[in-house]
Structures are given as structure tokens and as C-alpha cells.
Amino acid sequence: MVNVYGKNVLVTGASSGIGRACALAFAKNGCVVTGVARHCEEGSREEFEGGGSLTMRRMDVTDQSSVAAVVRDMQRVDIAILCAGMGIAGTAEEVPADLAMQQMDVNYFGVIRVCHEVLPRMREQGKGLLLVVSSIAGKVPIPMQSHYSSSKYAIEAYVEAVRMEMRKYGVRASLLEPGDTRTGFTATRNAFIPEDSPYKTVCEKSIARMAHDEQHGKPPESVAEVALKLAGKENPPVRVAIGLVYKLLMLILRFLPDRTAEWILSLMYLPRG
Prior knowledge:
Blueprint: E1 8-12, H1 17-28, E2 32-37, E3 45-47, E4 53-58, H2 64-71, E5 79-82, E6 88-89, H3 97-107, H4 109-125, E7 128-133, H5 146-166, E8 171-177, H6 185-188, E9 190-191, H7 200-215, H8 221-230, E10 239-241, H9 244-255, H10 258-269
Parallel strand pairs: 1-2, 1-5, 2-4, 5-7, 6-9, 7-8, 8-10
Antiparallel strand pairs: 3-4
């Protein structure tokens, strides 16, 4: 691993999935990793050859005091990899506002709360790398996951602004955009489908298709590999779609008329029959 930022790494959502894969990858490559999650064994520690380690701390990204307590215990924060997230599925019409706000609180404001603590540290150090796990859904809207897509769209705008604002202070930021990934995220997705919903059949089929594709998707280590590579770049790209298929999809959709792109996405995510 080539690392131009430093060995002190913070990883949110580090108890499972992409967060766990990233935490282990950096620890195995000699970094001192603080992994955080709401549910973990506080202070548990793993050590690896080459001096790397992973220490788990409890943190709730929806609680600013919880975030501050962990970050302020870290001697330095050279790299922050923000993976914590959750998903709510259902129609744009029916998902209630309180669930939509919960979606934004974790996926969007959770990122902001962590950044409020780590970005000043990086600016004062004169160097740092912020990696935020977005999604392909942050570039294309996913039917039956409108609020999840909205949370990721918001993250994309935020991180692009951070890149411009922090550049002169030596702080870099990039977005990681996985597509279907094989993690526990699928099982924990909150599906809101009222029994009397006129969308019930198509919504259930759409969510089932998403679950199938995710569980046959790329492993979370594919995201961790990209994160490791970005840590070696002085000028990392704005965003990286994970996997050749999704790179091609993003390229194709960029040049298609909006109506054509909409038609393709409908075929992908709204099962017929």
C-alpha cells in the first residue's frame, strides 16, 4: 500500500459490510485504525503484522456528542472513511416523513456530524483524506428507494463542495460509488409497504430484485481495494464507480437523453408482470 496521507484512520460503520472491509484492509496495511459503530465491543483491539491495528469504539453518527467523544480521543485523523448508512425502501408517495428524516439523519447528517469533527483536524494538520461511501444511487434515482437515493445525492453535492473548500489546506475528498454489493445491508433494509398500497405487488417485486442483485453482487472488499488505492493519490478523483459494469453504466447514462435514461432505469428496477 502506498499511503501519502498518514497511518491514523477513522472508519465509520466498521462493524460489518463495507466499513468492516475498509477497516481491516487499512489495518492489515500498517495503519492504526479506529473503527466505530453503534453496536460493537468497546475497546476491542486486533493487531496485525507490520504494526497495523484495529480498535473498535462505540459511536452513533446521529449524536454529535458521541461523534466528538471518539474523534477527540484520536491523536490524529489522517484519513476518514465514512461508511455508516442505512436504507429505507418504499414508494415516494407512501414512505412517511419521519422515516425519510431518519434516512437523511443517518446517511447525510451523519456524514456532516463526523466531518464537523475531522475536517478542522485535517486543516490544522495541513493534510488529510476524506472518503465517503455514496452509491450508484447517488447519481441515478432508484424507483422504490427515492429517499435512499436522495440521501446519496445530497452526499455527492456535499463532498464536491468540501473538495473545493478544503483543497488549499491540503485536504482531499472523494466519493466511492458501489453498485450491488454483498453485505448485511440487504437484510437490514427497512421496507415500508402498506397492506392496502396500490403499489404493493410491484414494490415487493422491485425490492426482491434489488435484494437478489445485491446478494449476487461484488464483495465489500472490492470497495476497500479502491479506498486503499485512493490513499496513495495526492489528487484523487471526485468519484469512483466500483466495478467495470457500473463504470460503463455511468458512462452510458451520462450521454443518453434524460427520457431514455429514465426508461432504462425503469426496466432495471420496476419489474413487469
